[in-house]
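quick one, 295 residues, struct below
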Amino acid sequence: MEKGDLLSVLLMSPAMILIIIVMVIPLIYGAYLTFFDFQFGRFDPGTDFTGLLNYSTFFQDKTAIKSIINTILFSFGAITGELLIGTVIAVILYQIPRTVSFVLRPIITIPLLVSPIVVGLIWRYIYDPQGILYWFLGLMDITIEQFPGVTAKSTALLSTIIAHCWQVIPFVVIVLTAGLVSIPIELYEAAYIDGAKGFAMFRRITFPLLHDVYMVILLISGVDTLKIFDIIYSLTGGGPNNSTISVSIYAFNQAFMQNNMSYAMTLSVVAMFVTFVIFGIPFIRYNKIKYSGVK
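---
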């Protein structure tokens, strides 16, 4: 206790015990169920063991494969939009007078305070053929046939990405603004004296110094988009014709609509593996290179 070794363990133990109870044990049990034919109200490990049947079923399930592809496309599309638009807004708020930015920042953060389910319902009305969006597009001679929104397979996924970006961009703006404030102003002054202006300053000063901030945003947004459920569920329900169905929605349908809990757990395990491969491994590798210099 005097050396502090045992004290640190004791201080961390309540949080570790909580994590084990609410995360590790359910995760292990969920992975265990993927090897059985588990249903609510009936489960006998001796007779319901199916081995790798659920995993082989997954690779033969076209809807499951489509849900994986849709989820990955949604993730990359949403992250790209969030980072690009969020960066532009954060830089603008950083450069405009403080009296103006103090007023605009609370307004910009409003979508972040709205429940994702409510966001989906809001955008359902926005995408209504008689709604404000098509009234605005009509001013530019763009009809519903040219941009059918959530009513067509070709644009439904893009429409859900737009709705998600509308809610999450304020988070990106807040984080990037904090990063911009931490950059010493002397660096910009020295660059300006050397003749750097506009995008050159951002490319050579701002972006390199915000690299760690972008990595944190990428990890958080990546995990958030790969487990997306609420906005898509309330906006399209996964339609039309499964064009926007995500892994989470498909697993929900299998578990609570089809009473196929073991297959839903299989979908969840696969989704977790995909998330780790796409975002977990690169982030671990990035930290390893940055802090230890080992490639």
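The mean pLDDT is 86.
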